[in-house]
Hints:
Layout: H1 31-39, H2 49-52, H3 82-85
Amino acid sequence: MSDRGEAIPQIELSHGHVFQPDFALDGPAHGEFLALVDRHYNPSIEEKKHNKESGVTAINRGYAACAIPLVLEHNTPNNSFAMIWAECYGGSEAPEMRPLFRRRQRHTDDL
Length: 111
């Protein structure tokens, strides 16, 4: 009971899936794929405030370099590879990026 005499409901947490520690594609076995990710990356998508907060400026391998190959039904996480969700025009030396799966922006101050 709380101070006001109200019962606090018991909360049970569950999960749908727990990924194995080696789920991220960041080891030597994934070298060719990581080279592809790096080659098809446009650094112009780094200008957003939330991307810099992780301490890892380049987000070619996702936010905080998580390197997870994940797309969810309702959105594509920003810690997935940028080539999956990023969209930007190319520059003189940077490639154009078109998303395989669109990402819904949740931070309006990123725009």
